[in-house]
Every structure is written in structure tokens, then in C-alpha cells.
Protein: N-acylneuraminate cytidylyltransferase
Organism: Xiphophorus couchianus
Amino acid sequence: GPHSFKLKLTTHLSRAAFKTFVWVSTDHDEIKEVAKSWKVEVHPRSEKVSSDDSTSLETIQEFLEKHPEVTVVCNIQATSPCLHPFHIKNALKKITEDRYDSVFSVVRRYQFRWKEVKKGSDECTEPENLNPAKRPRRQDWNGELVENGSFYFGGRVAYFEMEPEHSVDIDVDIDWPVAEQRVLRYGYFGGGVSLMFCEVSGCLTAGRVSSAKNIEGLRKLQKDDVEVVLLISEEDVLRQMHYKLMTGCEAMVVGEDPLKDVQSMVEKKKLDWNDVAYMGKNLDFLNLFLTFFKDYSHQLLVIRLRKFGYIVLHKLETVGQMCQVEAHVHILTVCSKIY
């Protein structure tokens, strides 16, 4: 149900960002059971702070009274599904490195505000943040910073600005359709695809010419904590360092048995093969890659993921295909949490 879905997102996010204790404060039995199934700590909220008019601050205060050992608190809103670990990590640095006492999330808005007047009043509305005689163009105006409610760290106060595409807040029922579409593209889903092998020839380059759009796609994957390993043939070994410096990705030379080389890396990183994706044009390699998944309960999903790699080979032989791959990895990761 919705409790499970939102708690999964929050748990994946928190563990990736903090790698420490994650607590769920609730007085709801179903949420408690879901939290325990995800092996997170549960703070049983008292009746005193569980009424309809109770605030988050009261709940946090109650938690801290019982856990005086906690020195920094991050209050993550489960109704903000497009929050990513890098948002939390960078905001936390403002406390641990820049010595701020409190940090909250904001988003930049470009909206002109006008004074509200009561219906039937003779009072005229007035502009609150612009001069109509000198109405600025959007590109000439820095806009305003507005709280988006994604998270709060609890003095010296700092804000952390988030991108508009990540500033989604579910407040009323009609927010759900918009949030669902935004999550598919910009949401964070924890342990979906965490390692992706990409053949340089034909995927990252056309001949030996690299594409800026493909590099951009790699950057987006890395920003989402997906490690990309470039697979280079022995004939192209002299360009290994060049590709590594150009992309920031690890470049791996594979021999006559590329599957063996890849398998050793997956085992070394202690990953499940369901966390691994492959993009390339080696059909023999692709078929061998599929054999690892025949015994998994998510066989249909995993094969869909590998077939996606096959489609990349045949249908996306264009500049910028890596950006399209990055978008599909998002969607496939969503599927891995649904099926």
C-alpha cells in the first residue's frame, strides 16, 4: 500500500545518505510492521503527539527526550518522493563542515505575488514582489527561494537549494498523478541498478568520436549512484586512460572471455546480479549474461532489463543514446520495486 511504498523510498534514501540509524516515528500498527520488515528502528509515538493538530517539531522533541545521544536530526518528509541521497549529503555538510546549526530545503520559484483582497471589498490588490512598471523578464530575475518541505536539519540557519524537478510535495489527492510521473523520471529508488557495464565502441563512441551527450548521460547515472564501468577491447587498450579521464568512469580491458572478467568484478563488489545492467553490441556476451538470471524469482523483470540492453544496441544507434539509457534505467529501477 501507500505506507509501504513511501517507507521504502525513505528507507533507501536515508541508508544511502547516512549509512547509520534510520528511525520511523509512528503510532500506526501497519506502518510499524512495514518499518520492521525493512529493518529500521521504530519510535512508538505517544498519544500526546499523535493528534491531528500535532506538529513534526513536537514529535522530534519527544524522540530526543528518549534519545539524548543523538546530536544531529534530519527530518525527511515521506511526501517528497524525488529527494535523493546527494541532496541530504550536501545539506549535512553545511552542518558538519560549514558549522551551521540548521538547514532546510528550498526551491527557486519565478512567480509574481499579489496581495489578496477579500471578496466584495473596495480594496485594490497590490504587487508584493515586483514593480509592474518595470516588469522583469524571467531570465533577468533571480526569482525567490521558497521552502519545499523535503527535509529539515535541526542558531545559525542555512538553506539548501533543490532543483524544481526534485521539488515534489504530495499534499492533496490531486498531487498524486503529477508526483507519480515525476517520480518515474526524477525519483530515487535505492537498490535498483547499481552497476552498469558499457561497451565503449558503439555505445559511448561512434567509431572513435566521443559524444558530449553520451558523456552527459554518464554523469547523470553517476549522480544517481550508479557506477558505470567502461568495457574496452584489447585492441583499444592504449585509449584506456583517455576514456577514464574523459568520463570519470573506471575503464576495464576485457579479453576473449569478457564474461569472466565482468563476473570477477561483480563478485569482488559483492553485488547481486539483479543489480547489474549491461549495454553493448556483443550478442554472445548478452546471451551469456542472461544465463545468470534463469533461477531468480524476478526472471521476467531481469530479462526485460537485459532486453533493454539489446534494444539499445539496435534502436538507439544515435548521438545522445546514453541520455536515453539513463532515463530508462530510472523507469526499470521503478519496476524492480513494483514487481
